Amino acid sequence: MNNRTFAMIKPDAVRNGYMGKILDRIIEADFKILGAKLIRMTKAQAEGFYAIHRERPFFQELTTFMSSGKAMVLALEKENAVSAWRDTIGATNPAEAVDGTIRKDFATSLGENAVHGADSDENAAIEIGFFFTNSELISNE
Ligand code: GDP
């Protein structure tokens, strides 16, 4: 079992001043932060990150948004990290997200939904590798 996941605080949440509040939620939910950095993706990087969605009608809108400003990428550790983080962030559409989830409290819309979470252990490893080298992941306190 893999106890790591990949998370991102998306540009809408950074722009809206929610970066600190979302980091608090991560810590309160007992995730260990193995790595964190502020990035600004290029359009090409965003297209690479979301390549799985390239045939979807919202691909251009999504990758333009994701490259529109600063974001914070995080490698997180917790038991069953992938599902634990998906539970913490809530449904993709904030209108469907349950009370207390990050998307319910901080998302702007279906597209600009505050945070990203890997959807499988396999994708978590790929996405962590997209932004972090091994030496940037610090597991000892
Ligand atoms: P996630 O795993 O919950 O992030 O959801 P998906 O993998 O289905 O979609 C990836 C991201 O694409 C979502 O988090 C949204 O930012 C965006 N997205 C999904 N559906 C739509 C849509 O209908 N319109 C737009 N503009 N963006 C969307």
Describe the fold and architecture.
The chain has 141 residues and is an alpha+beta fold. The protein has one domain: Nucleoside diphosphate kinase-like domain (Alpha-Beta Plaits), CATH 3.30.70. The protein contains seven helices and four strands. A four-stranded antiparallel β-sheet has the order 2-3-1-4. The longest helix is centred in the C-terminal third of the chain and has 11 residues, at 121-131. The structure holds guanosine-5'-diphosphate. Guanosine-5'-diphosphate binds at residues 58, 61-62, 92, 110-111, 113, 116, 119.
Q: Could you spell the SSE succession in H and E letters?
A: EHHEHHEHHEH
CATH top level class name: Alpha Beta
> What would you say the CATH architecture is?
2-Layer Sandwich
Quote the average pLDDT. Answer: 97
Q: Estimate the helix proportion, in percent.
A: 25-40%
- Sheet-strand content, in percent, reads 15-25%
Ligands present: guanosine-5'-diphosphate
List the SSEs and their pairings.
Blueprint lengths: L3 E6 L1 H5 L3 H10 L3 E8 L3 H7 L9 H8 L4 E7 L3 H9 L12 H5 L8 E3 L3 H11 L10
Antiparallel strand pairs: 1-3, 1-4, 2-3
The structure holds guanosine-5'-diphosphate.
The site of guanosine-5'-diphosphate has 9 residues, from helix 4.
Produce a short descriptive summary.
By secondary structure, the chain is of the alpha+beta class.
